[in-house]
Request: fold
Amino acid sequence: GVATAYAVATGVLFYVSLTIALRLGKITLREWHRTVAIPMQAAVFMAVVVWWVSNWVPDALPGALRLSILVLSGAAIYAGVLWAMSRRELLEITVLARAALGRGDQ
Reply:
């Protein structure tokens, strides 16, 4: 009851506030969806892999070690999927970051 109503209201209010913010920034909802699609896909894939790995990592391991394995596997999968799906954009970000740090073509 209450939790469902809260979840629905949160989703509706998210899109209302997002639409207002995008309108102020002169960005269409379609452009925003296109921008977040690849990171969202990578996040979903990462979540599935971390869930799968968590079923294979023994519960007898110390909590910190178990958590480290899950975090590292998640980070590796997320980075790998992003690299595979948007290599050109990541290389462009790297060039921009190096230029901003004054490390151009060194």
